[in-house]
Design brief:
The structure holds 2 protein chains of 2 kinds.
Chain A: E1 6-15, E2 18-28, E3 33-37, H1 44-51, E4 59-64, E5 67-68, H2 73-78, E6 80-83, H3 95-104, H4 111-120, H5 136-150, E7 154-158, H6 166-181, E8 185-189, E9 202-205
Parallel strand pairs in A: 3-8, 3-9, 6-7, 7-8
Antiparallel strand pairs in A: 1-2, 1-4, 4-5
Helix pairs in contact in A: 3-5, 4-5
Chain B: H1 6-18, H2 33-50, H3 52-72, H4 77-100, H5 105-110, H6 112-117, H7 123-152, H8 160-184, H9 192-219, H10 224-253
Helix pairs in contact in B: 2-7, 3-4, 3-7, 4-7, 4-8, 4-9, 7-8, 7-10, 8-9, 8-10, 9-10
Classes of the chains: A alpha/beta, B mainly alpha.
C-alpha cells in the first residue's frame, strides 16, 4: 500500500478572541507518530479537530497525499479515525452493538472481526453489557476496539490513555505500534508520554 | 547478545505481518451509503425501544390535548366536530415538537454526530435516516392515534382513513422541518423554546393544509387537493431538509 503523508502548513485558528493555533506546521509520513504535548488549553484538541476538518482554520492548510483535504473532505475523513475525549458510545446499547453500528456505518464488518477486536481489548466478558453499566476504562477499551476495526491509515487520538489501567495503557502502545508498523500515521495529543511500545515518537509542543 | 530493543522490534515485526492491510485505497471495504443509512436508522430504532418513556410521552401528550378540548369548549357534538381538525392538528404539531428535542441532542452529547460527520459517508443521507427513524417513532404513531382523538371529538367513522392519511403525510413534513430546527439549535442549552419559535412558523403550511384535509374528511368532502399539497410539502422537505440539517450539524460541531 502506498503510504499517504500528512502535511500541516502554517495553521492559524482563533476561538473568539483567543488565538489558539499560531502557525502550527508539521509533516508526517507513513509509519510515523507525532506526539502533541502542551499544557491545558494550549490547543491540542483544537489542533486535532482542525486537522480532521471539523474546525475551519483561519489560515493555513492541511494536505493529505499532497492534496488539500478541503478539495475532497469526505474522502479524507473516510481515511481517518478520530477518537476524542469521550468514547463515542451509546449508553443504552451494549459495547458490541455500539461497535456494530459505529463501524458498520463506515465499513463492512463481519462478526468474526468484531469478536476478535473485542477479545483483543479484553472485552470478551462484558461486551454484551449495556455501556451505561461499564466503567470509564471499559468504555475506553471498547472505543479502542472500534479504533482498531476502522482500519484507517490516519489516527487522531485525543488523550488515548485516559482512564486506562497499566495494562490498558500498554494496549494503547501496542495498537499504535501496530498501526505504525503497517505504514499508518498517528497524531496523538497527550499529557503524559505515550506508552513505551511506541518507539521514539516525534514531538510537537504547543505553547499555552 | 541481543541489543536492548530487539525483542520489541521482533514483536513489532510479527505484529506487522499479523495486522491486516489498511483500507484507504480499496473502495471495496467501504460500506455503501444506503447500508450506512440503514444502520443509522436501525440504531435509532433500537435505542428508542430501550427508552420507551421517550416514545410514549408525545403520544400521551396528544391524548391529553384531545381530552382538554371537550372539557373546555362544550360537550355538544356539533361544536366538538367543528373543533376536531384544530384539536387533531394543534395536538399533533405540539406532540411532534415535544419529540423533536430528542432527535439530535443525545447524539451530539455522546459524540455520535461527530463520528457521523467524520465517517466519510454523506452526512445528508445519515440525517435523512435519522429523520426517517424519528417519523417512524413519532409521526406514524401519531397518525395511528389520530382516529382515537378524532372519534372522541365526534368525527364520523367514515372520516377516519382520511384523517390517518392527512396526519401521516403531514407528520412527514413536520419531522423534516423539525430536523432543521433541531440541528440549528444543537449548540444551545435549554433550546426548547427557541426550537418552537423556529419550527412553528415554518410548520404553518402543514397545519393549514392538514386541518383543511381533516375538516373535509369529517364533512365528507373531497380531500385530495389538500392531501396533495401536504404531500408536496413533504417531498420538498425530503429533498431539502436533510441537506440543511447536515449543514447545521457541521456548524454545531465547530
Amino acid at each position: 500500500m502506498p503510504s499517504e503523508g500528512l502535511e500541516v502548513e502554517n495553521l492559524h485558528l482563533w476561538r473568539g478572541e483567543r488565538h489558539v493555533l499560531r502557525g502550527v506546521c508539521f509533516s508526517l509520513t507513513g509509519g510515523e507518530c507525532l506526539q502533541v504535548t502542551g499544557p491545558n488549553g494550549s490547543g491540542k484538541t483544537t489542533l486535532l479537530r482542525a486537522v480532521c476538518g471539523l474546525l475551519y482554520p483561519e489560515e493555513g492548510r492541511v494536505l493529505w497525499g499532497g492534496r488539500n483535504v478541503r478539495s475532497d473532505l469526505r474522502a479524507f475523513q473516510g481515511s481517518l479515525a478520530y477518537l476524542g475525549h469521550e468514547p463515542p458510545l451509546k449508553a443504552d446499547l451494549s459495547a458490541r452493538e455500539n461497535l456494530r453500528y459505529w463501524i458498520g456505518v463506515r465499513r463492512r464488518l463481519n462478526a468474526a472481526a468484531l469478536d476478535a477486536a473485542l477479545e483483543r481489548v479484553g472485552a470478551g466478558a462484558w461486551c454484551d453489557r449495556l455501556v451505561r453499566t461499564l466503567s470509564a476504562g471499559q468504555r475506553r477499551r471498547a472505543a479502542l476496539a472500534g479504533l482498531a476495526l476502522l482500519m484507517a491509515p490516519l489516527w487522531l487520538l485525543d488523550e488515548p490513555t485516559t482512564n486506562l489501567d497499566t495494562e490498558g495503557q500498554q494496549l494503547v502502545g501496542t495498537l499504535i505500534a501496530e498501526q505504525l508498523a503497517r505504514g499508518g500515521l498517528v497524531l496523538a495529543a497527550v499529557h503524559h508520554q505515550l506508552p513505551a511500545a511506541v518507539r521514539e515518537p516525534r514531538q510537537l509542543e504547543l505553547a499555552a | 547478545m541481543n541489543p536492548p530493543g530487539s525483542t520489541a522490534l521482533s514483536a513489532l515485526a510479527s505484529a506487522a505481518s499479523a495486522a491486516p492491510p489498511l483500507s484507504a485505497a480499496s473502495g471495496t471495504e467501504r460500506a455503501a451509503v444506503l447500508e450506512a443509512a440503514r444502520l443509522a436508522l436501525a440504531r435509532d430504532l433500537t435505542l428508542a425501544f430501550r427508552r420507551r418513556s421517550q416514545l410514549v410521552q408525545p403520544l400521551a401528550f396528544f391524548a391529553m390535548v384531545a381530552v382538554l378540548f371537550p372539557l373546555t369548549i362544550s360537550p355538544e357534538l356539533a361544536r366538538l366536530r367543528e373543533a376536531a381538525p384544530a384539536a387533531v392538528w394543534a395536538g399533533a404539531l405540539l406532540a411532534s415538537l415535544l419529540a423533536l428535542e430528542f432527535l439530535f441532542r443525545d447524539d451530539a452529547h455522546d459524540g455520535t454526530l461527530e463520528q457521523y460527520a467524520l465517517s466519510g459517508q454523506s452526512l445528508t443521507w445519515l440525517m435523512f435516516a435519522k429523520t426517517a427513524a424519528h417519523w417512524l417513532l413519532t409521526g406514524l404513531p401519531l397518525a395511528l392515534m389520530a382516529p382515537l382523538v378524532a372519534v372522541s371529538l365526534g368525527a364520523p367513522g367514515a372520516s377516519l382513513p382520511g384523517i390517518i392519511a392527512s396526519v401521516a403525510v403531514g407528520s412527514v413534513a413536520l419531522s423534516l422541518i423539525g430536523s432543521i430546527g433541531a440541528a440549528l439549535t444543537l449548540g444551545i442549552k435549554r433550546s426548547g423554546a427557541l426550537l418552537a419559535l423556529l419550527v412553528l412558523p415554518l410548520s404553518l403550511p402543514v397545519l393549514i393544509y392538514g386541518a383543511r384535509a381533516t375538516q373535509l374528511a369529517i364533512s365528507g368532502g373531497p380531500l385530495l387537493a389538500p392531501l396533495e399539497l401536504l404531500a408536496a410539502v413533504a417531498v420538498l422537505g425530503i429533498t431539502l431538509a436533510p441537506l440543511a440539517a447536515a449543514a447545521a450539524v457541521r456548524i454545531s460541531l465547530e
